[in-house]
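Exercise 7.
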Amino acid sequence: MHFDELIHFCFQLKGATETFPFDKTTLVIKVQGKMFALLDVDHPTGINLKCDPERAIELRERYDGIQPGYHMSKKHWNTVSLEGLVSDDLIRELIQHSYDLVVQSLPKKLRDELEN
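Solution. The predicted structure, written as tokens, is:
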């Protein structure tokens, strides 16, 4: 998946914002202040995405392009290759899954703010 297409997809999600809290190249995409995606803007070879722990293991076993989250909790995060090892459709699905997990974990007040 091309970097511009990936970024465009992420920012189509309601309430998505970008930050650079770690350094000048690590883009962190958040919803209501919580991370759901991270990637290096200078070398976008992979994207870190939150994932249901059971599904994370299943995906790693099934796809060479999905590994435990780089510099993240290996239980809750995967690094998904952007170099053609994972289909664009699956990447979009996993971005949506990550976003949905984060939104579901938000307090009701923040979920309500997002909806309105």
